[in-house]
Structure formats: structure tokens, C-alpha cells
Specification:
single chain; alpha+beta; Ribosomal Protein L24e, Chain: T; two-stranded antiparallel ribbon; Ribosomal_bL28_sf
Length: 78
């Protein structure tokens, strides 16, 4: 599963791990992406979304209907 949130668009960040001796190695900071199932009354069915923790909070605040409308406007297939 790709580490990309369908709601917020959060993608991995890149940087360095720094050891005690200050040697740097490349690393990747992945967003907390989870597969969640939501029931959408307007579609009359469940949809599965890959959402980050912040994306879940956005859905709770705005409602799944509003989020689905915006995703369809962006051209995301649900």
C-alpha cells in the first residue's frame, strides 16, 4: 500500500537519521496511513479509503459526504 493519504494528500518526507557520532544515513518519514471503510449514504454502499490520522479527523469534522464530493471533483475513483 502506498504511503499517500487520499484525503489530505500527505506523502512521505525524507531526511537523515543522525547517530550519536553524528553520522547521517538516509531515511523516510511515512505518514500514518490506514485503510478505513466508510458507509456513504448518497452512494448507498461502503467505500475503502487510505487515510492518514489527520485525514480521519478531517472526515470526522467535515463529514464523509463532503469529503467524497471533493474526492470525486478531483477525479478519484471510489
Amino acid at each position: 500500500m502506498a504511503a499517500v493519504c487520499q484525503v489530505t494528500g500527505a506523502v512521505p518526507g525524507f531526511g537523515h537519521s543522525i547517530s550519536h557520532s553524528h553520522r547521517r544515513t538516509k531515511r523516510r518519514f511515512d505518514p500514518n496511513v490506514q485503510k478505513k471503510t466508510y458507509f456513504v449514504p448518497s452512494l448507498g454502499r461502503n467505500i475503502k479509503l487510505n487515510v492518514s490520522a489527520k485525514g480521519i479527523k478531517v472526515i470526522d469534522a467535515r463529514g464523509i459526504e463532503s469529503v467524497v464530493r471533493d474526492l470525486k471533483a478531483k477525479g478519484v475513483k471510489l
